[in-house]
From TrEMBL, chain A:
It comes from Bicyclus anynana. SUPFAM superfamilies: TPR-like (SSF48452). This is N-terminal acetyltransferase B complex subunit MDM20 homolog. Belongs to the MDM20/NAA25 family. Keywords: TPR repeat.
From TrEMBL, chain B:
It catalyses: N-terminal L-methionyl-L-glutaminyl-[protein] + acetyl-CoA = N-terminal N(alpha)-acetyl-L-methionyl-L-glutaminyl-[protein] + CoA + H(+); N-terminal L-methionyl-L-asparaginyl-[protein] + acetyl-CoA = N-terminal N(alpha)-acetyl-L-methionyl-L-asparaginyl-[protein] + CoA + H(+); N-terminal L-methionyl-L-glutamyl-[protein] + acetyl-CoA = N-terminal N(alpha)-acetyl-L-methionyl-L-glutamyl-[protein] + CoA + H(+); N-terminal L-methionyl-L-aspartyl-[protein] + acetyl-CoA = N-terminal N(alpha)-acetyl-L-methionyl-L-aspartyl-[protein] + CoA + H(+). PANTHER family: N-ALPHA-ACETYLTRANSFERASE 20. InterPro entries: Acyl_CoA_acyltransferase (IPR016181), GNAT_dom (IPR000182), NatB_acetyltransferase_subunit (IPR051646). The keyword Glycosyltransferase does not apply. The lineage of its organism: Eukaryota, Metazoa, Ecdysozoa, Arthropoda, Hexapoda. This is N-alpha-acetyltransferase 20. It holds the Pfam family Acetyltransf_1. It is found in: Cytoplasm; Nucleus. GO terms for cellular component: NatB complex; nucleus.
Length: 914, 173
């Protein structure tokens, strides 16, 4: 953030002196800024602005305590010049001390009670801490000094916010009527002038559910003066609230005559028709109160369209009517069959890639039997079949739309059938390559790409049913070719990421992921697509990098989000204020970011050098799902739909998050308890640690019961089974392994040598048997993903136990004394403990050797497939080499090499502890 | 078939298929939230009946005196929903808002290589007002066309008399 204030008043000598300090600060050279500030202070040691900037430079150089000492001294002088105050505000904000900013400006306005600018800063300081009452007070003071509209509405908004957060209804009612009275008075004085003021007034009336008053206001001349040209549209929600269905009906019809494609007018129109149908008494002969009249109206809209431009609106409206009528009746007598209507839609719009996505919700409404019986009609309705060879781009898109509609309606079919269809689609794509029918540009997809994405869906279903990687390889080979020709196609990229991960290959997936260039908010909404899958694919270093990006985004936003509220006041956009507040809270409670925080603490124990544990921020209550699960294109038939997917997978992910949170908290407590305070002094933390370990064990038991047998089916467009499933259902007893190691540290920290050694002995036995419980590496590429996930869970434990052995080692050698001296001073109990730890250490090293041996002899897989043979048969001159096999081989090799390297380091580290 | 509604913060979680397009930039969060807080009426989204984001437009009003104008900051349409007139609908809204704000003209910048977009803007009545050299950074940098369309307030269409020479980005106000 730029430090320099936007308006400097005292332009002259002071400004000139300070300029270099600002320059250095804005360029991020804090050292130079500090030197420059000291230079200025030599000449004028009391200059407040220079001292404030000096403090800021010191803070940014990591000298927090010194910076705050300077700042406190300044604050005691109660400065009131803008330059000083702004520099101090920045420092307080950067150190998250928002309350101090309030105090600062409270003192400043006392010194200069008529300054509009200082009062407005004071108001904003209350906004940052969310003190609505203080906001109201300061905005009122501000309005008295400078009677401007925005300030008045700051007062009103502050009252509204108090009402919104008020706990009892009476208080809420009083506050809202106060807010309303304030605006009413303003209106009667003819002072209302801005759109946002009118919207705030509506918001106040809405909170009181005064629908009639809102309608009257919207229809008043004042509203159309403040918000010109939107009266009709603005009435819609309130006519609905008031049940004025006839009026709503006529209004929407009017709007639709002029806007035949506006879905937001059709929906309330249908609502009104269906209400009027129920409610025969409300008679207005012009309103459409029967299905017949409604259909008639839609037909008129269809006919009214000029021949040049056909809009989807009226056609989809007919389907919507069919859908609504079929909820509790039979619409066929009026509209014909749903199949016929869908086919009619396809006939008109099949040349658009949105045709089938548009139809999707309506296809799902057709009874399954009828849908499956007519799937062939969808394919053939435009004269195509599987073997058609369309030559124009429009026809290719039509053909693809028909094929997609068939996929959505047909019974899924046996794997052989799916593979045959996939093969046919692949031949279609290759035909387009050979016939030079590909037209993709830098930003436009190519119609023929649809053959590839649809084929990938068929291949993937066959692979899942057969539990075989071969069809996935075919899909990947085809999609790599599609992407080669159509580099902008996002669907292709996302499908490929999913497919590479299906084969457990995070490195190959990354080769595509980087081409998507996701950033900022996308790191959150798309985290599940790739970043979340790296750690279980045994790519911890890569996972850590991606998690660090997500974490950095989250941290940055948490700091910024409060500033956005001040903008909304500044520009008087009161509606957005609530939205921005809710958005800040939503991102703050992001489950994925919370998990990223935990993984960033745990994974370095495996993949990083031993380092202090980052303690993540507290777990949000409750964590929020910010995943965009519709990102990957899906051509799954309606009967394969999984309506609970989002809720189910989120519930599982949150359970996993809680387990990881328990582990991080326990490990952090182990570190805290391992210092050289007396046992009595750390009693409280030891108790907390014990409680944490018990809670973890208990949660593991519950999760095993709840999630151990959860469904694990893979779907191309959905998140993979949550990590909790493999973790709690593993034959390796992670519950006991983690609780034993944590209990051992706890006992040793508490000076309970005997009990500590018992835990260590139990742990050693568990470790020995766990080696036998580990499943052997996958022998087929299909099983690789699950196999790597199982090993990643085991390796994470190895990381934790290695780290905790280091902690125990610190415990028995609290100072950096020489080994020989230390041994001499050990009590018999400590000697026994040291011996026990050394035995445990040996066991961990043996386990590591055992793992090294497994990774050394990891099977190689045969990735044979045939797209190049088929390409060679075509008459294509440009050379294309399919990269899939190489990517998969290199990816696996890289992962294995990394893991072996990690294990070597762990082993080396463990030896240093002995 | 479109629902036009104001863009909301939560839309940022679901605009992926629009924004992963190579020429559509995903900005830092505060860029979007500042536009939302400052010019909410200029930030509109077109939604499909199934709730998918088909495209969005973000813009602002700026300038002094006869330079007071509406500006298109971003206009992007999901590739699956192109050639349906969505961009034109969204541009229309931005022009209407600019009319209400009594702007003199609406302007926008577009890559000179983006033929599809340039043609669309021309069909909507925009002219190339000037070329801005190396406006888009990249390898190599690319020039932009500054395209304009006059609003009704500019009766004599003074704002759309093309410049004869190109300008540097720093000369653009």
């Amino acid at each position: 953030m730029a430090v320099r204030p936007q308006h400097t008043h005292n332009g002259g000598i002071v400004e000139r002196r300070l300029r270099p300090i600002y320059d250095w600060l804005d360029n991020g050279n804090n050292k130079k800024a500090l030197q420059e500030a000291e230079k200025v202070l030599k000449k004028s040691p009391t200059l407040q602005a220079a001292r404030a900037l000096k403090a800021l430079a010191m803070f940014r150089l990591g000298k927090g305590p010194e910076a705050h000492a300077v700042l406190q001294a300044l604050a005691d002088e109660k400065p009131s010049d803008d330059t000083t105050l702004q520099a101090m505000t920045i420092l307080y904000r950067e150190s998250q001390q928002f309350n101090k900013v309030c105090e600062l400006y409270e003192a400043a306005v006392k010194a200069e009670p008529t300054s509009e600018e200082l009062h407005s800063h004071l108001f904003m300081s209350y906004v940052r801490v969310g003190d609505y009452r203080a906001q109201q007070r300061s905005a009122m003071a501000l309005y008295k000094i400078a009677p401007k509209n925005p300030y008045y509405f700051w007062v009103v908004m502050s009252v509204v916010l108090q009402a919104k957060t008020a706990e009892d209804d009476t208080k809420k009612g009083i506050l809202l009527s106060l807010a309303q009275r304030m605006v009413d008075n303003f209106i009667s004085d003819n002072k209302m002038e801005a759109e946002q003021e009118a919207r705030l007034y509506i918001m106040i009336l809405e909170l009181q559910e005064k629908w009639e008053d809102i309608l009257n206001f919207i229809e008043s001349p004042l509203y159309s003066q403040c918000v010109p040209g939107s009266t009709a549209q603005a009435c819609i929600p309130y006519l609905k609230k008031l049940g004025q269905w006839s009026r709503l009906n006529l209004l929407c019809k009017d709007l639709l005559w002029d806007n035949q494609d506006r879905w937001d007018y059709y929906l309330p129109y249908f609502d009104s028709v269906f209400q009027l149908m129920k409610n025969e008494c409300e008679g207005d002969s012009h309103a459409d109160d029967t299905a017949e009249k409604c259909h008639e109206f839609i037909c008129q809209l269809v006919e009214s369209m000029s021949s040049g431009r056909t809009l989807r609106g009226p056609y989809l409206a007919r389907l919507e009517l069919w859908k609504r009528l079929s909820v509790d009746g039979d619409p066929t007598s009026l509209l014909g069959s749903g199949v016929a209507l869908c086919i009619q839609y396809l006939r008109v719009f099949a040349n658009k890639s949105c045709a089938v996505p548009d139809l999707k919700p309506y296809l799902a409404m057709i009874p399954q039997k009828e849908r499956e019986d007519s799937c062939r009609d969808f394919l053939t309705c435009l004269g195509f079949d599987e073997n058609s060879e369309p030559e124009t781009l429009d026809d290719i898109q039509r053909h693809i739309s028909c094929l997609c509609a068939r996929r959505l309606t047909a019974a899924p079919g046996a794997p052989a059938e799916q593979l045959a269809t996939a093969g046919a689609l692949r031949r279609q794509y290759l035909r387009c390559v050979a016939r030079r029918l590909l037209t993709a540009t830098q930003t436009e997809y190519c119609a023929a790409d649809g053959y590839g994405t649809l084929a990938a869906h068929y291949y993937c279903s066959a692979a899942v049913q057969q539990r075989s990687a071969a069809p996935v390889l075919q899909a990947l080979a085809l999609l790599e070719l599609v992407l080669h020709h159509s580099p902008a196609n996002v669907h292709v990229k996302l499908l490929m990421i999913s497919l590479y991960h299906m084969l457990g290959n995070a490195i190959a997936a990354e080769s595509i992921y980087v081409r998507l260039e996701p950033k900022h908010i996308q790191l959150v909404s798309l985290g599940w697509v790739h970043a979340a899958r790296c750690a279980p694919a045994l790519a911890p270093a890569r996972a850590l990098r991606l998690l660090a990006d997500a974490h950095a985004f989250h941290k940055h936003y948490a700091k910024e989000s409060v500033e956005h509220l001040t903008y909304a006041y500044k520009y008087g956009t009161f509606e957005k204020l609530l939205e921005l507040g809710a958005w800040g809270a939503r991102l703050g409670a992001c489950a994925w970011c919370a998990l990223a925080g935990r993984e960033r603490a745990l994974l370095p124990l495996l993949a990083g050098p031993p380092a202090p544990l980052h303690a993540p921020a507290r777990l949000p209550h409750p964590p929020v799902d910010n995943r965009d699960l519709n990102a990957i294109i899906s051509w799954e038939p309606a009967q394969c739909a999984d309506p609970d997917l989002k809720e189910r997978t989120f519930d599982q992910d949150v359970a996993y998050l809680r387990l990881k949170d328990g582990l991080v908290s326990s490990i952090a407590l182990c570190i805290e308890c391992s210092d050289n305070r007396s046992v009595a002094e750390k009693r409280a933390q030891l108790d907390e640690l014990r409680a944490c370990v018990d809670a973890f064990a208990c949660a593991m038991d519950k999760c095993r019961d709840k999630y151990g047998a959860a469904r694990r089916e893979l779907c191309i467009s959905a998140p993979f089974p949550s990590r909790i499933i493999a973790f709690v259902s593993s034959p390796v007893p992670y519950r006991d392994l983690y609780s034993s190691v944590l209990t051992m540290v706890c006992e040793l920290c508490g000076g309970e040598g005997v009990r500590g050694r018992e835990s260590a002995e139990r742990l050693r036995a568990l470790l020995v048997s766990s080696r036998q419980q580990l499943e052997a590496p996958a022998t087929s590429p299909w099983a690789l993903r699950e196999s790597l996930e199982a090993f990643s869970n085991y390796l994470e434990f190895i990381g934790v136990i290695t780290f905790l052995l280091g902690v125990c080692n610190e415990l028995s050698t609290p100072t950096n004394t020489k080994k020989s001296k230390k041994k001499a001073s050990q009590s018999p109990d400590q000697i026994l403990t040291t011996e026990m730890l050394s035995k445990l250490n040996d066991e961990v090293q043996d386990t590591i050797s055992f793992l090294e041996d497994i990774f050394e002899k990891w099977p190689t897989y045969d990735y044979g497939f045939n797209i190049e043979d088929e390409l060679a048969k075509l008459d294509i001159t440009d050379k294309y080499h399919c990269p899939v096999e190489q990517k998969l081989k290199n990816g696996l090799q890289e992962v294995l090499a990394d893991v072996k390297n990690i294990l070597k380091k762990k082993s080396k580290y463990l030896k240093t502890l002995q | 078939m479109t629902t036009i509604r104001p863009f909301t913060c939560e839309d940022m979680l679901y605009f992926n298929t629009v924004n992963l397009d190579p020429l559509t930039e995903t900005y830092g969060l505060s860029f979007y939230t500042q536009y939302l807080a400052h010019w909410p009426e200029y930030f509109q989204v077109a939604e499909s009946p199934s709730g998918e984001i088909m495209g969005y437009i973000m813009g602002k009003a700026e300038g002094h005196g006869e330079n007071w104008h509406g500006h298109v900051t971003a206009l992007s349409v999901n590739p699956d929903y192109r050639r349906l007139g969505i961009a034109a609908t969204l541009m229309n809204i931005l022009e209407e808002v600019s009319e209400k704000k009594k702007a003199y003209f609406v302007d926008l910048f577009v890559r000179v290589s983006n033929k599809v977009a340039i043609n669309m803007y021309k069909n909507l009545g925009y002219i190339v007002y000037r070329t801005v050299l190396e406006y888009y950074s990249g390898d190599p940098d690319e020039d932009a066309y500054d395209m304009r369309k006059a609003c009704s307030r500019d009766i004599n269409k003074k704002s759309v008399v093309p410049l004869t020479h190109p300008v540097r980005p720093e000369e653009v106000d």
